[in-house]
């Protein structure tokens, strides 16, 4: 993995943890790194105005459903990867899984299994980062 000097050691620890857990769970590291980068900039202390928490910006409800503590970095990472994997297994494509990660699976279903207009920029940003991380041969 290429290390960008602009990142702190803490960011590198987060990224290494994401890659390790993704590989252990059979998920491509490049996609979940991309989600974490967009969601929080790899910041476990990130909190959204909507109450989403940590590296993967998990809601308390999602975290509870996954049986993880979103305030613990390792749990947050595990939960984010599990949730992405569930969305991928449900929709069968990275783009739809990323969109569902962002807006929820019910909205994707109601949108005839397509990415809603209002989340296309989010999905595009993640897919661009995915291509970058994929080239890094994680």
Give a written overview of the molecule.
With 138 residues, the protein is mostly helical. It has a single domain (9-135), classed as Lysozyme (Orthogonal Bundle). It contains 7 helices and no strands. The radius of gyration is 14 Å and the shape is globular.
Indicate the mean pLDDT: 92
In total, the number of strands is 0
Beta-strand fraction estimate: under 5%
What is the percent of helical residues? 55-70%
Task: Give Rg in angstroms.
Answer: 14 Å
- Could you say how many structural domains there are in total? 1
The CATH topology label is Lysozyme
Number of helical runs? 7
- Under CATH at level 1, the class stands as Mainly Alpha
Q: What CATH architecture label applies?
A: Orthogonal Bundle
For the terminal residues, how far apart are their CA atoms? 6 Å
Shape: globular
**What's the SSE pattern?**
HHHHHHH
- What structural class results from the helix and strand content? mainly alpha
Runs in which pLDDT lies below 50 for 5 or more consecutive residues are 1-9
Biggest sheet overview: none
